[in-house]
Each structure stands twice: as C-alpha cells, then as structure tokens.
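Let's study a protein:

___
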Amino acid sequence: MNRVRLVAIAILMTLALAVVAQEAHHGQSAHGGMPSADQHLKILSEKLNLTPDQQAKAKPIIEQMTNGAQKAMNDQSVSQEERMQKAHAVMQAADKKLREILTDEQKTKLDEMESQMRSEHSKPQQ
C-alpha cells in the first residue's frame, strides 16, 4: 500500500508539473520545472475546492514539500535512485499532512484524481 501511495504522489507531482509546463507555454508561468508552492496550492485549490482556511493551512505544507523535494533532487552526493526515494519520502509526508486538513469528500476526490493519473500513467505511450 505504501508503494501505491508513493506512486500516486509521484503521479500527482507529474500532473502538477504538466499543468505548470502548460501554463508556461501559454505565458502564465515565469518558469518551468517543478511548480512553486503557490502554483501547486492553486492547482490543489481548484481541483479540490479548498476553503481559504484550508489554503492557509496547506501553504506551509506545500512549501516544505516543494523545498524538500527540490533539495533531495539536487543532492548530487547520492545516486539518482536515492534522490528519488528522498523526494518521495518528502512528498509522502506532505500528502499525509495535507489529508489531515481535507474533508472526506476532498479526500475521495484526491483519491480519484490519483487513481485516474495512475491509469493514465500506466497506458503505453504511442
């Protein structure tokens, strides 16, 4: 189950990256790459209909996740696999914290989004 959650988090981050890349292509984002905490919060707010209170609580969680994942991925003292593992651990911890502030309905919607992303990610590329 942990492996499934890890894959789901990775896929969620990939979706966020794709959205940011698309925004950058349309001139809405100043840079590509990993979404900023604000961009990630915007995406989650729109997809999960977060309240202003939830957004305020989610922002430091997302900032910590973004900074931690970026730091892990930039750590050249370890292998690529270890960098990925560290980044996934950071993202998994953030996912757990974020779920604490979500309603049951939002958790269900997040689960559905993750499930959809897993199925899209597992389709063969053409």
User: Anything to note?
Assistant: Helices lie at 2-25, 37-48, 52-74, 80-101, 104-122. The chain is about 80% helix and 0% strand. Residues 17-32 have pLDDT under 50 and may be disordered.
